[in-house]
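New to this. Please check this fold:
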Amino acid sequence: MRILQCFLLVVSILFTGILAAQTQDAFTHRAKIIQDGSIPEMGSSFVVSVEIQGEAATDLWYSEQHDVVTDEEGWYSIKIGSGVTSSPVTLNDIDWTAGKLFLAIEVTDAFGNAVSESVNELLEIPAIAMTSSIESRSLITLACLEDLEELRAFQVPEHGDMICIKGHTSPRDGGEGFFYFLAEYTAADDDGIIIKPNELDSSQPGRWVRKLDGFININYYGLTAGRSTDGVDNYLKIQRAVDFAANNRRNDHRRAKGEIAKGNTVFFPNGEYIMDGSVKLYNGVALLGEENTMLTARRNASFDYFFTIGGGRVTISMKDMWLNGNKVGSIGGMFFKAQPGPDGTGGLWQSRFVNLNIINFMGHGIHLEGSDTMGLLGENNYKLPNQFNVFENVRITRVTDESNSLRMTMYQGQHTFINCLFMGKRDRTSLGTNVFISNSGGNVVTFLNCTVQESIHGIEMENSSSITIDNCWFENLYNAVDVTGGRSINILNSRFANSAGYGSERHTGPDVLPQGIGPATVVAAENSSVNVERSFVLVTNPNEPEVADSFFIVGRNNIGNGLNTNNITTRANNFADDRLSRTFGLVPGIDVSLRTIILNGRSNVMAVFDGTTVLRFIESTVSGGEQISLTIRKDEGRGIVKIKDWKENRRKGNISLDGRDQIELADGQTVTFMKVDPPVAENGDEPLYKLVSISN
C-alpha cells in the first residue's frame, strides 16, 4: 500500500514561498511516497496531475501534468504552473479573488494505478493576490497583517485559528511569522510572542501565541540590528524575551503538548544590537548569537553590567557573540552574584559560555561572586556558591587599570576555563591585574590552554585553594602569577615569555611602575603552598639588562625574622637562559618551639632554633615513606643544637636516631628524616621520623 505525504510551499500546510518559472508564475509542491507505512518508494516513476478548481469540481480553472521520479528518500518535487497542459489558461489568468478555489492532486504509477488523490482549499489562508514585477513576472503572496498592532486590532477569532503578520513594527523587520489563537490562555501581552487582542481586557482569556520552531528570535520583540535602535529601551525587549524563555523552561513539564509555543533559547541574528540597560538572566535560559553578533553599550548609557542573574540556582548558556562595552561609564560585562532562592540555595551552576569576545568594558569583564561560606561576614552557610561552570574560548580584553578581565570573589568552586584569553590594553600600558581570585572558602578552578598577557599582574590570588594552571601561555607581564595565602596552587607545563619584569620587553610596558610593587617575578608567593613544574621560561633578547633584575620564583618575607612561611615545590622546569632560573626565599623558616617543630605540608624548611636547643618531636602532614629536610639555623648561644632519640618512650619524642641518644648540629647543616608509619614504626599508633642523612 502506498501513502502520499506531501506539503505545498505556498498554501495549505506550509504556504510560505513562490518560485518563478520562465515567463509564468509557479509555486512548489513536494511530496514523499512510502509503502507499508515506512518504506520509501525510491527511484520510481509517477505521473502527478494537478487541477485548480472552483467550488464545483466541474468548474476547472487550470490543469497540468508532471512526470516525476522519486529520490533516494521517496520524495518528488514539482513547480505548479510549469507542467504540461493542453489549456491556454496560465496561473496569470486565474482570478484568485473570485471565490473559493481548490487544489486537486492525483498521483498514479507507471501502470496507471492510483497512488493518492487529495483536494485542499487554497483559501484556508487569508487570501491570495496576483501582482506583476517590472519583468512581467507575477508572484503569489500571502495577504498578511502588517504588524502586531494590526494583530491586536483584529477581531477575536475562534480557538485554534491561525494568522500571519509581516513584521513586528514594519514588514520584513525580522518579527514576521504565524500566530495561533488560544481561547483560554491568560498570560500578559509581552509584545513579541504573546499578544492580547484589544477587544479583551487583561482579565479576560484569549491570546494570540506565536508559532516557534525552538528559538526565540530577538527580532520578534522589535529589537533589530543597527544603531538606529540606539536609546529605545532595547534592554526591556531583551528582558521580555528572556522572561518568556525562563517561563517556558519553568512550565515545560506541566504544560500539555502544543498548548503554547515552546523554546528557551533567545537568538540574536548577525548584526550589532545597542544595549541601554542591564538584563537579568534566569534558570534554563540560553543566549545564542552568530559569528558577527555584537551587543554594544549605548553612548552615554548608565548601568552596571550587561547581564546579571536572578535568585536560586541558575543554569544558563551563552554562545557565539561579542559583548562591546564601548568604553562607556563604568559598565561591566557580566556580574553573576549568588543570591538565595526559596530553599536558600543559589548561584551560577552547571552553566556554559562558549565563543565569546568581551571587549572595551570600563568595569570587569566577568565577575563571579559567591557567598561568605566560612561565616566571616556573618552568613555562615555553604548554599551560595558559583560552581560546576565551563568557559570555553572566552576572550576578555580590559581597558582600565582598575578593572579585571576575570574577577572571582568569595565562594567559587569547580570552574574550568579552556582556551580562554585574559588580556590588558593592547597598547601594552596596562597596570592592575587581568585575573583576580579572592576567596573565603571553596575553590577548585582550572585554567587549561589559556593565554594571559599585557599587564603588571597576570593572575593574582588571595586566600585561594586548589587552583591549577596547566599548559597556559603568559606573555609581556611584570608578575605572571602572584599568590598570597594560597593552598595547593599548581602551575604546570606552561610557557612564560617576557613574563618577569617584561623580560627584554620592558620598553613596551607601562612608563611608570607602581610604588612598592616588588621584584619582577614569574611566580611570587607569600604564606602559600605552590607547586611549579615542567614549565618553560624565555625572553626575546637575553642580552637586555632587564633579565638580570628578574626572578623565576620569589618567596616573599612575611614574618619578623626575615624568613617566610611558604611551601614552594619546583621541579623539571626549563629555561632558555640559565639566568632566568634565579629564585629567592624558597625555603620557609619554621620555629622550634617547646622541643617541637610543626611542618604541616612542608618538607624542606629552615629549622629556627632560638632559645630552645633540643628537638624531640616532629609534626608533619607528609605521608609515610616521604622525607623531610631540616636546615639548621641557630640565632643564639654557641651555635650548636641537639636532636634527641625517642628511646622507646613516645612521651619523650618521636625521632629515631638508629641507636644514638642524640646528635649535635651546627648552624647551616641539613638533616634528613623519613616518616615511618605504624606498625613498622614500633611506636604504638604514632609514626616515627627515622634519621636518613646529615650534611657536613
Q: What stands out?
A: Residues 272 and 294 are 5 Å apart (CA to CA). Residues 234-251 form the longest helix (18 residues). The two ends are 99 Å apart (CA to CA).
